[in-house]
Amino acid sequence: MQLISHQSSKWFMIGMASIFLFSAVLRFWQLGRFNTLVFDEVYYAKFANNYLTQTEFFNAHPPFSQYIIAIGIWIGSHLPFGQEIVNNETGSPLASWSYRWLNALTGSFIPLVVGAIAYQLTHRWSYGFVAALLIALDGLFLVESRYALNNIYLVIFGLLAHLCLIIALQNSQLKQKKWLALSGIFFGASAGIKWNGLGFLLGIYLLWILAWIIEFFAPQKKLGYTSPWQNLTRLNLIQLILNLFVIPIITYSLLWIPHIILNPKYGFWEMQQQIFSYHQRIGSGADTHPYCAQWFTWPLMMRPVAYFYKNTGLLDKPELSLLPLYSDIGYPKLNPLIFDVHGMGNPILWWFSIWAILLLILMLFNRIWHWEKNRQARHKKIKLKQIIKFPHPSEMWLLLYLVINWLSNFLPWIRVSRCTFLYHYMVALVFSILGFSWWVDRWLNSLQIRFRITGVTIIFIVLLAFIFWMPVYLGLPLSPQNWQLRMWFRSWI
Questions:
Q1: What are 73-94's pLDDT values in tens digits?
Q2: By the 8 A CB rule, do 449 and 328 touch?
Q3: How far is Cα of residue 287 from the mean position of the Cα atoms in its chain?
Q4: 20 to 30 A Cα–Cα from 364, which one of 76, 143, 456, 481?
Q5: Stated pTM of the model
Q6: What Cα–Cα distance (Å) separates residue 104 from each residue in 27, 34, 233, 281, 359?
Q7: Quick one: which of 361, 345, 344 has its CA closest to 462?
Q8: How far is the C-alpha of 432 from the C-alpha of 438, rounded, in Å?
Q9: DSSP letter string over 196-210?
């Protein structure tokens, strides 16, 4: 048994290393191919450079992601290579890859963190590998990792906070303190990227409340199984407040110090008020931004975002951002091509994932209904056979974790009136993909061959979809016909 476990862990490590290499290659390949500012790089790359040049400015988001990008710019600008092609769009002569490479590196680690969370929750190597693989096959995470944007940092810090908390709940009290504190720091760091990073923390608060409710109605000693989330009830109120409230607030506050020193016009509280007022003033709809997408359209990916678009057949003169690529594509008038970086996910993966998470919600309601039915029968001393036994109780907490965190990072957007975009769904997407991975892993480990074939087939379809849409993730040149072939719906354009 130990030999099998050792072999499994060995192959798991090889598999995770392969996924990391695959992710890194896609993210670093021709990272500076568009020598300009792409999409919101006009904010974040510029703001990052402002910190380096000590230029005052107003930031409509917390500053932590721009600090990280600024570090990347400083390191990239001091390297003895990659300085041949530069632009001045940030306010300083910089190579475009210098403000992108740290995002690419960070994004390469996200599948590993997701895989680690899946493994820590279940101690199943196969589940960890499937979850990491499917996240690596998503297009929006790839696009966001290749440019100086901030959502990648929001996601990875929030996921690291969850991973540290899961580890803390499975460790001794001494080690638990360290992991709990580290989790609180990461929660604060995620909120220091964007306020919606607080959704990661909201999910944990709701799980803590749920753990106590379940402990009251069905004490752990009667259940015969354990889960990291059941151990939330072992955290007393002081531990909870200190590690999951005070430490995140302190971390978030400290992250503002460099910004306020550079921009002394507003203090800490004034900056929070200014940010809130700024987002309150932003309107919604196509008049505000052509790619505004309402929250309920995100799971079905009804309105992706064009981050970069150039049709060489419509250009009257060479496009500066494409100059390094002209030698490969020929004279644009004779060979019109479209360069499109589309901020869209893997459609097949997204559509499977939303069905997966909705099915998990239905399963949980089904379990609650049968549990209540059996409880009433026991109270009346009526013998009633348990009708539903799927999933096994040992997995119920995993499903609760996925569903509650998906809801915590999705439903609060109902109250947001400003223009929102597809990338605001990225955090909730992680948990829906984890839910989909749970289904696929069950099929792959089924004793029935038809389920194993189903699992392999689905992974293969997701991989083919990723390859098919890869040109619009990487901004590869496409003929107008091939580009149109990938725009399945009018709302995607």
A1: 999 998 888 788 899 999 999 9
A2: no
A3: 28
A4: 456
A5: 0.91
A6: 5, 15, 38, 32, 34
A7: 345
A8: 10
A9: GGHHHHHHHHHHHHH
